[in-house]
């Protein structure tokens, strides 16, 4: 019989959810969000977009397929994960599976969380928690052990999360004749995998790097955590780029930063989009895609410049899911076409960007 130490999630509205720990037993604090995906906990945990957050998974059984190897490819990109470490503060599940089975699993989720110093909380009614967050919006929360140290609530938006998640120097991948600059705002590895083709050289640059000193053929702006309104330096560099004609594409945070460069305002969503089943429609058509998403902010399309228009909209709440320039080869998506985890219905977005080079 496994011994489990009692622990509790406490929200800043006074709500309390009691359960048991299964990861690293240290108190943690952050913004509590819910994820409705059935799988993908490895990819979500290693997604830099989750920095400063505590994720509750509404699917009840988590951990049953374990954790894959952290091995990297010859170019330094992870084979199975989305970065080289876990970025979120904690994960909350209803029923943690101590036994796992999968062809490429090398350890259990609990062992991984302990090594990465991330809290795991189980025994929580995560669907009740999700309903609470849907009613009240994303809340600050903390997880503390019974009889253990108490800590203060933390606001992940009080710091520039993009600056913390971004690379520190320029990293080059590939040796093709087409030069692509990737602005790293907290990029997922599968974006890099999706951009690397035989004819591409990819320059991964820090979030505040003046990429105009590189003779590039195309600009790609990545996903990332936190508040896009803290990235004015990046926006200024993008604004200079949209004065030209070289192809530009943005994903998630990249959609918001491109929109800001186009004059749009960004606002905080009540509880964000965190799932693998968000329906998105291409504006002007009846094409609908099921998409993977992870973001807490959205673009106000009414504030876009006159040269821009919406490209995609969310069919659940009508919020913006992408923009495009009316004449130039600039476009973006709020969702994740590279998935990992999630559907790959919109992988064509990378093809559309690369064919414009």
Automatic annotation (TrEMBL):
EC number: 6.3.5.5
Carbamoyl-phosphate synthase small subunit N-terminal domain ranges (all copies): 5-144
Top-tier EC class: ligase
Catalyzed chemical reaction(s): L-glutamine + H2O = L-glutamate + NH4(+); hydrogencarbonate + L-glutamine + 2 ATP + H2O = carbamoyl phosphate + L-glutamate + 2 ADP + phosphate + 2 H(+)
PANTHER family recorded: CARBAMOYL-PHOSPHATE SYNTHASE SMALL CHAIN, MULTIFUNCTIONAL TRYPTOPHAN BIOSYNTHESIS PROTEIN-RELATED
NCBIfam families documented for this protein: CPSaseIIsmall (TIGR01368), PRK12838.1 (NF009475)
Family membership: Belongs to the CarA family.
Protein's name in the database: Carbamoyl phosphate synthase small chain
